[in-house]
Design a protein that fits this description.
This protein is of the alpha/beta class. It folds into five domains: 51 residues, no CATH class; 79 residues, Helix Hairpins (Orthogonal Bundle), CATH 1.10.287; 148 residues, 2-Layer Sandwich (Heat Shock Protein 90); 120 residues, Rossmann fold (3-Layer(aba) Sandwich); 164 residues, Dihydrodipicolinate Reductase, domain 2 (2-Layer Sandwich). It has 16 helices and 25 strands. The chain has an eight-stranded mixed beta sheet, covered by helices on one side. Strands 14-13-12-15-16-17 form a six-stranded parallel beta sheet, with helices on both faces. A five-stranded mixed beta sheet has the order 5-7-8-10-9. Helix 3 packs parallel to helix 6. It is elongated, with a radius of gyration of 47 Å. The protein starts with 7 loop residues before the first strand and ends with a helix.
């Protein structure tokens, strides 16, 4: 090997069988050379030493790297095993905790799992509560259906008749279907909304008007105020209708006097003056079966939330100064410049049922009750009130939140918005005021006693027929469900022996009468007295079941002016006697007993005009020295406010023009009036 400017020679020589490495190098310009020799064994040792050092260092480095890798892998595997164990225990339903104080990706996964577990726990609790509430919600209609079905199977009709009992089953089946429908709708609403709603908008003004119209009968005393613009919301009409209906149902449940609906572009508000919501519950309002103030549960608001979110709207509830408000809105109203290209879904035109608009005559307690009953009845409303005093008429209208009031009867009868007159004036005015109303072509609901004579009674019926209107006697008894049950179970009594009716109610005016202070209630000129005012209910009860008696007689306690303050009416039928006791000068437990050789039906609770409770009592044999073990069977139902039943029937007959049912009522009134007329002639 040679380098530029330097003469170098290397090689190997063998001396005495030993190899040597040599190197000869020219030391410069002088003729001087440097020779180097190295034993071959030294070279080998050095080489081996270098190799050994290199291997050691390499092994050490590799071991260190391996150790580091092991530690690193363990640092990953251990928390992963913890996470795995955590997941397995969660899977088994165990309550466990996961603690990993890490800020890397594994720590993020662990934190996410803990959050997920907490959410799953909350959801599981919510699911259990929801299942419990659903079960509770479905239990009542199922139990009713089962109970009524078993009763019908045994030949017992809990609601009086087979048809009525089957109707109860059908009503509860419908309730059950509605609840299941809501559950299914809740689970499918997002799919239903998004699958068919692309490019669809709904006229919210039309939807709101429809919902308000259909919900007006829920609580007629609640005013519904609307401020609605013709605006369009994205989404299907049906989904928005369901959402608004559910908010309205909730509002009607809690409102005190009013509900207000405001609709502007992409903003709908429904407020009411009900109790304010607890602040800590507001965020949970839209969860399924969230508990309300009255212990009520439901799916309504959760459906509202899903409909809104599926159509990309927000929904919230909040307290206002007066009560509560629910709002569906968008933060930024959507531009509708191109809505002309979208499909606009219009509502079906729903024809509103004709409503009986009633004007009342009188301001007594009975009118208060009638107004209450009308407000609880579909397709009926109080349009105006009348009193002979302007001040009294005004005060009475304010009391019942009625817009119109009259103190001139002719003016009320000429009101074109009134089609029915309720006559609850003193008994002596029933005929003349009813006649006047008929001639004004108004339907009439005339309080008992209908008229004092059969001649006047027939005249009113004929006059109503000539003028194309109806006139009804306002008697509650014969329209009550429990009264129908009495008829249904009459056969269980066997051969009848006695019917006893007692309606005794101490008059608030009897004290004045005893002091010879004349009042309408005890004035013969005003057709007062116990027979006309009280006993008429008993007469209706008996004749409504058994028809015309063979004979009648009336024995009365009479006051100083000849008026009957109390009395007993005896009606003879083939095989049995019916007695009707009516008293305004004393009181007792009001009841009806229908006695037969196979058992007794007892009606009690208020009066025979209410029939709150109905029982069947098997016959008792010789009870001397024996313990009385009662096996009384309750055969009645729990009725709503008793006057609603007559209102509903009058409205139905008028709306459907049911002449057959109307004529039966007329015949019943004629029979009772004829008995009253005969008995009022004196002993």
């Amino acid at each position: 090997m040679e380098k530029a400017g330097v003469d170098i020679k290397t090689g190997t020589v063998i001396i005495d069988h030993i190899g040597y490495y040599y190197r000869i190098q020219n030391a410069g310009t002088l003729n001087f050379y440097v020779a180097s020799f190295m034993d071959e064994t030294y070279s080998t040792s050095l080489r081996d030493s270098v190799i050994d050092s290199t291997v050691y260092v390499t092994v050490l480095a590799f071991s260190l790297i391996l150790l580091i890798m092991i530690v690193w892998v363990f640092s990953i595997i251990h928390p992963l095993n913890q996470i795995k164990s955590y997941i397995e225990q969660i899977k088994q339903g165990k309550q466990v905790e996961l603690y990993l104080n890490r800020e890397d990706e594994i720590g993020e996964v662990a934190n996410a799992l803990v959050t997920m577990k907490d959410e799953l726990t909350r959801q599981e609790k919510a699911k259990e509560e929801m299942i419990h509430n659903i079960s509770h919600d479905l239990k009542t209609p199922i139990a009713t259906i089962k109970s009524y079905s078993e009763s019908i199977k045994d030949g017992i009709y809990p609601y009086g008749t087979l048809e009525g009992s089957v109707d109860v089953i059908l009503d509860n089946a419908q309730r059950l279907e509605d609840k299941v429908h809501n559950l299914l709708y809740l689970n499918r609403v997002e799919y239903l909304v998004t699958s068919d709603s692309e490019g669809v908008v709904t006229n919210m003004k039309e939807v709101v008007e429809e919902v308000v119209l259909n919900s007006a009968v829920i609580r007629s005393e609640i005013r519904v105020i609307t401020e609605v613009e013709e605006v369009f919301f994205d989404g299907l009409l049906e989904s928005w209708r369901v959402a608004i209906e559910n908010i309205m149902d909730n509002a009607f449940r809690y409102a005190k006097s009013y509900i207000k609906i405001t609709v502007t572009e992409d903003d709908l508000k429904i407020s009411n003056d009900g109790p304010k919501m607890p602040e800590d519950r507001i965020e949970s309002l839209f969860r399924p079966y969230e508990k309300g103030e009255g212990g009520r549960f439901g799916l309504g608001l959760s459906i509202v939330s899903k409909v809104a979110k599926a159509n990309k709207y927000k929904v919230k509830g909040y307290n206002t100064e007066d009560g509560v408000c629910f709002r569906i809105y968008r933060d930024k109203p959507k531009s509708r410049k191109n809505d002309s290209k979208k499909k606009i879904i219009k509502k079906k035109v729903i024809k509103k049922e004709k409503e009986m608009k009633i004007g009342t005559i009188g301001t007594g307690v009975i009118v208060d009750r009638m107004i209450q009953a009308v407000n609880m009845t579909d397709h009926m409303s109080i349009e105006a009130v009348y009193s002979r005093s302007e001040q009294k008429a005004c005060e009475y209208a304010k009391k019942h939140d009625v817009k119109k009031y009259y103190w001139n009867l002719d003016e009320m009868l000429n009101d074109p918005e009134i089609d029915t007159i309720y006559v609850a004036s003193p008994n002596s005015l029933h005929y003349s005021q009813s006649k006047k109303a008929i001639l004004a072509k108004k339907n009439v609901i005339n309080e008992k006693p209908f008229t004092p004579t059969l001649k006047e009674c027939n005249e009113l019926f004929e006059l109503a027929k000539e003028n194309g209107v109806f006139i009804f006697e306002a008697i509650t008894t014969i329209h009550l469900p429990n009264y129908a049950l009495v008829k249904e179970h009459l056969k269980d009594c066997g051969e009848l022996k006695f019917v006893q009716c007692n309606f005794s109610q101490y008059s608030s005016r009897y004290g004045k009468y005893k002091n010879h202070e004349q009042t309408n209630a005890f004035d013969p000129a005003f057709n007062g007295g116990a027979l006309m005012d009280i006993n008429v209910y008993c007469i209706h009860f008996v004749t409504g079941i058994f028809g015309k008696p063979e004979s009648v007689s009336y024995i009365a306690n009479r006051g100083y002016n000849g008026i009957d303050t109390s009395g007993i009416l005896i009606m003879r039928y083939p095989g049995f006697i019916a007695t009707c006791v009516g008293a305004k000068d004393s009181s007792s437990e009001n009841h009806v007993y229908i006695q037969g050789d196979q058992g007794t039906i007892r009606v009690f609770g208020s009066s025979c005009g209410v029939c709150s409770h109905v029982e069947f009592i098997p016959p008792k044999k010789d009870m001397i020295g024996k313990k009385d073990v009662s096996n009384t069977l309750n055969i009645g139902i729990e009725q709503i406010m008793h006057m609603t039943y007559e209102c509903a029937e009058f409205e139905r007959i008028t709306r459907l023009n049911d002449i057959e049912a109307y004529e039966k009522l007329c015949d019943q009134t004629r029979l009772v009036v004829s008995i009253l007329e005969e008995c009022s002639k004196g002993e």
